[in-house]
Amino acid sequence: MVDRHVLACAPSNIAVDNLVEKLAKNKAKVVRLGHPARLLSSIQHYSLDAILTASDSTSIIQDVRKDIDKALSKSRKSKEPSERRHLRQEIKTLRKELRQREEKAMKEVLIGAEVVLATNTSAGNDGPLGRLPMDHFDLVVIDEAAQALEASCWIPLLRAPRCILSGDHHQLPPTIVSPEAAKKGLDVTLMERVVKQYDDKVVRMLTTQYRMHESIMKWSSEQLYNNQLKADSSVQHHLLKDLPNVQETEETTIPLLLIDTTGCDVMELEVEDELSKGNEGEADIVATHVTALINAGLDARDIAVIAPYNLQVELLRKRLSHVFPSLEIKSVDGFQGREKEAVIISLVRSNKQGTTTILTKFVGNIVSFTVTCAILKGSRALASK
């Protein structure tokens, strides 16, 4: 069976935008729902608003709007009651025509798309999809399903007879603000329940990865996937030095590197907000390494700098963003599913207990990137655990 109409969703705007980029490369006819201001600039021309603006219906709709403006202007100036009544009726008729033409134009664009993309929560009947019958789509695909609240998944799932949940329940869970809600089960995702209840009956694990060097993959494969992951030959031994215009240096010939900051006098910042942490010395080391990679020929756009705390993200941006504007510096959830050649992770601190919660979360989530080189900055003692 060929799926002629697919609804593709994800829990976040960035995850949906990643899907749009991939589908557009394969020449699929896509429409991205959502406010243009929330979309990546590179995919805004695939937004519903942009497509409607460029459609043949736009000129007619604009003419109707002009007619409404003229009638409103005449109505304000007119002193004759009969003329004003006539103009009010004309405005009412024109507004009805405008709504009908806008609805028709939007429906035509949506029906003509092979793939409509939206966040889970914007796939309901109160948005543009309300113009389509509930049985319009043949298939619903939810990407990053392991990061989505179950309730949000049911919004798109009701729109098609078949579905595919794509994701990895070993990676980032959904963000739950309320601890009480988490205790009562809100933190259990639909994907987790499906894996637990049905397992091999419906679950298929993709064991060949095309994202990273086998050395980067090894930790995740051993710790999370029972050594089932295999690196495709196209990435198995791929290094930064193999990229066009990148020189062979110490930084570009090592796929996985730990820079041990133990004893380097890089102390954690003492701040009133105990929820956020920072380390200026470690931020300086990151800045030095980013500069070395760029001097070797790597484009700043191909580097991701990640930290577990917002304060450290701020410190890193202050040092680097004005020098390399295209360099992305974010927390890990802002990068998941992205393609970068090098990922630099600033771990910021090691706790007194020596637990590895942050490290496990970060290294585990490297598997969600397409990455050639991964660099960790932190304590060797912590990393060795």
UniProtKB/TrEMBL annotation:
Q: What GO MF annotations does this protein's record show?
A: 5'-3' DNA helicase activity; ATP binding; hydrolase activity
CC annotations in GO: cytoplasm; nucleus
Q: Where is the DNA2/NAM7 helicase helicase domain?
A: 4-178
Keyword annotations for this protein, in alphabetical order, are: ATP-binding, Helicase, Hydrolase, Nucleotide-binding
- Domain DNA2/NAM7 helicase-like C-terminal: start-end pairs: 186-360
Q: Which InterPro entries match?
A: Coronavir_polyprotein_1ab (IPR050534), DNA2/NAM7-like_C (IPR041679), DNA2/NAM7_AAA_11 (IPR041677), P-loop_NTPase (IPR027417), SF1_C_Upf1 (IPR047187)
Entry-linked Gene3D superfamilies: P-loop containing nucleotide triphosphate hydrolases
CDD domains, from UniProt?
A: SF1_C_Upf1
Which PANTHER family would you find in this protein's record?
Answer: DNA-BINDING PROTEIN SMUBP-2, DNA2/NAM7 HELICASE FAMILY MEMBER
Give the protein family.
Answer: Belongs to the DNA2/NAM7 helicase family.
Q: Any idea what this protein is called? A: DNA-binding protein SMUBP-2
Native organism is Exaiptasia diaphana (Tropical sea anemone)
List the taxonomic lineage: Eukaryota, Metazoa, Cnidaria, Anthozoa, Hexacorallia
